[in-house]
Design a protein that fits this description.
By secondary structure, the chain is of the alpha+beta class. Helices cover 31% and strands 9% of the residues. A two-stranded antiparallel ribbon has the order 1-2. The longest helix is centred in the middle third of the chain and has 16 residues. The radius of gyration is 23 Å and the shape is elongated.
């Protein structure tokens, strides 16, 4: 039979608390992770790790983080986009309307 582990934390004057290390480990929480709260009818509150929503893209977040670090570490590498390149892109994509909120067809997924 497994034992129940109980831990406590204290609320600050601003109603903030530190999630105890044992809870962070049990929920596999890292910095900036989200916590999901389930409040049951009897007043019991269950904490779980919030699952990423469909809108969250962990690979995109990692890539954007990589870009931010690279720009911060090597600002000398930044270059302006050539105006001729922008014109070429516009000529290739001009007149194409895209609805970013439309669902993809089965062929596009």
């Amino acid at each position: 039979m497994s034992a129940t582990l109980e831990v406590e934390s204290t609320l600050t004057d601003r109603y903030q608390t530190t999630v105890p290390e044992t809870v962070r480990r049990a929920l596999r929480l890292g910095k900036r992770d989200k916590i999901h709260y389930t409040i049951r009818p009897g007043g019991e509150v269950v904490l779980t790790r919030a699952e990423a929503s469909e809108a969250d893209d962990p690979l995109l977040g990692q890539f954007l983080g990589f870009l931010a670090r690279d720009i911060a570490n090597h600002p000398e590498r930044l270059q302006a986009v050539d105006a001729r390149f922008v014109q070429r892109l516009q000529s290739l994509t001009g007149g194409i309307d895209v609805d970013l909120d439309a669902t993809l067809s089965a062929d596009d997924e």
